[in-house]
Amino acid sequence: MLLPVIMAGGSGSRLWPLSRQLFPKQFLTLNGSLSMLQTTTKRLKHIEHQPPLVICNQEHRFSVAEQLRLTGSQHSGILLEPIGKNTAPAIALAAFYSLKKGYDPVMLVLAADHVIKNEQAFCNTVMQAIGSAEAGKLVTFGIVPTSAETGYGYIKRGKAVGDNSVFEVAQFVEKPDYETAENYLASGQFYWNSGMFLIKASRYLDELKRFSAEIYNACAIAVNETNEDLDFIRINSEAFSKCPEDSIDYAVMEKTEDAVVVPMDCQWSDVGSWAALWEISDKDSSGNACKGDVISINCSNSYFHTQEKMIAAIGLDDIVIVDTKDATLVAKKSDVQLVKKVVEQLKAEGRSQWKHHREVYRPWGKYDSVDSGERFQVKRITVKPGAKLSVQMHHHRAEHWVVVCGTAKVTIDGKDQYLTENESVYIPITAVHALENPGKVPLELIEVQSGSYLGEDDIVRFEDKYGRA
Predict the structure, then answer these.
(1) Of 120, 238, 255, 375, whose CA is between 20 and 30 Å from 29?
(2) How many helical (H) and strand (E) elements, i.e. helices and strands, does the chain have?
(3) Burial of 341 (0-12, 13-18, 19+ CB in 10 A)
(4) 3-state secondary structure at position 117
(5) How confident is the model at residue 10 (pLDDT cuts 50, 70, 90)?
(6) Cis peptide before 145, with omega less than 30 degrees from 0?
């Protein structure tokens, strides 16, 4: 019984400004028509498996649920971490939850933000490794290296186990300098550490208990009290908060005697930077990768990505330009690792661009902050058919709503009214109100907020169908 466990956590700051804390890279459509999370679920189609169990941070839960819904992806639940504790606890939660449900699966642990171009090779290698996992081995997949990369950890293989496709793990190695990476590549004995695993749930917990008992005990208590609502599986947050933070490599794989590595040659990338994304993208005859409305003249070896505005680039080489609604990145391709310093500065200055986009997704739809100034803010709000915002009130702001298209059901202090195109309504400060789309098409409206404080935390919710506080 194979259970894919998809880890969809992380903040993805290395791909800013597309990636933000509340919309990290696993939700981005970077290569093709699907997001990285959606692509991860789709590549499992050649393997017989149970519907995947997805693990994510609580604040990302609606993005995960919506992306799975859009592709019709079946799943075994979305397990919510109250706080990120790295991979060892996350995998423990999945293992404990599976055993609690009455079965002991072989878990195929995957990250939601990897690119794998040869999906058939990926699936074939997974199938080839299942026997080792069923026999009690803790399998990690080592990517056959194609270059001397300094951005990846490495795994050194030991002697063959059974045949030439499974090897003992001789050593896990941290990210090397370039000369060392070249020696690793030349030796033929090292693989890139993919962060993908194939482990039977009970065997993982046995080894975790042996080597990292604190993690084992905290996760056991946390999963003992689960609460399931909608697609979401909530654990005991107080118990989990006491769990140490550690990776599966440090907590288990480097200590167990049963770790094995299976080589995988599948055109893999963890897309850890804009330079890495340029590497795997389709390029023109001059080596430029372009996404969106781009005019490139006398440019070479560059990456251009725009969401709305046109980018016109002239005479550039080895440059990255990424344009979003509220931020633009211009960098030398060789210096894109410094993007994290931009994010750190934005965060230190209390600016919103590190945390979320101008366009923000909610379980009921989305809103786009079109304009703002002293004591006012303008948003374009889109509500999905059948969706409803929470019954709420504000202490510091009034709102004007103008319907652009669709039909709105508006409730103000217990009284219902229906608005259609070009009609408007005013919601005074402290009025208890709700907005609903009773129609079959998306509802779009313009919201003008005015008042002394316009923050998103000025919301008192009385009722919410999505379980938000």
Answers:
(1) 120
(2) 11, 30
(3) exposed
(4) coil
(5) confident
(6) no
The pLDDT score that the predictor gives to residue 265 is 96
Amino acid at 115: V
C-beta of residue 266 within 8 angstroms of C-beta of residue 125: yes
3-class DSSP state of 447: strand
Give the span between the Cα atoms of 6 and 9, in whole angstroms: 9
Exposure of 203 in the CB half-sphere (CA atoms within 13 A) = 20
Give the pair of three-digit tokens for residue 123: 């699936």
Which pLDDT band, with edges at 50, 70 and 90, does 466 fall under? confident
* pLDDT attached to residue 469: 67
| Strand, helix or coil for residue 438 | coil
Burial class (CB in 10 A: 0-12, 13-18, 19+), 208: buried
- 77-81 and 106-111 beta bridge pairing: unpaired
- Take residue 83 and report the two structure tokens written for it: 């706080």
pLDDT band at 455 (very low <50, low <70, confident <90, very high): confident
Cα–chain center distance at 150: 24
What would the two tokens of residue 389 be? 């915002």
The region that residue 203 occupies, defined by phi over 0 for left and psi between -120 and 50 for alpha, beta otherwise, is: alpha
Angle at 229 between CA 85 and CA 410, to 5 degrees: 115
Of all helices (H) and strands (E), which one includes residue 347? helix 339-348
Report the sign of the C-alpha dihedral through residues 109, 112, 118, 119, in that order.
positive
Q: What residues are paired with 362 via a beta bridge?
A: 365
Residue 317 carries which DSSP code? Answer: B
pLDDT in tens, 26-84: 999 987 789 999 999 999 988 999 999 999 998 899 899 989 988 999 999 999 999 99
47 phi, psi to nearest 5 deg: -120, 135
In sequence order, what DSSP letters do the residues of 233-244 get, joined into one string?
A: EE--HHHHHTSP
Residue 419 contacts residue 443 (beta carbons within 8 Å): no
**In 3D, which of 378, 390, 384, 388 has the Cα closest to residue 366?**
384
Q: How far apart are CA 156 and CA 378, in angstroms?
A: 56
**Residue 234 CB coordination number (10 Å):** 19
CB 335 within 8 A of CB 322: no
| Residue type at 322 in one-letter notation | V
- The runs of H, that is alpha helices, within 109-266 are 119-134, 178-187, 201-211, 213-224, 237-241, 248
Q: Which pairing describes strands 190-200 and 106-111: parallel, antiparallel, or unpaired?
A: antiparallel
Residues paired with 268 in a beta bridge: 116
If residue 418 lies in a helix (H) or strand (E), which one and from where to where? strand 415-419
Phi, psi at 41, each rounded to 5°: -70, -35
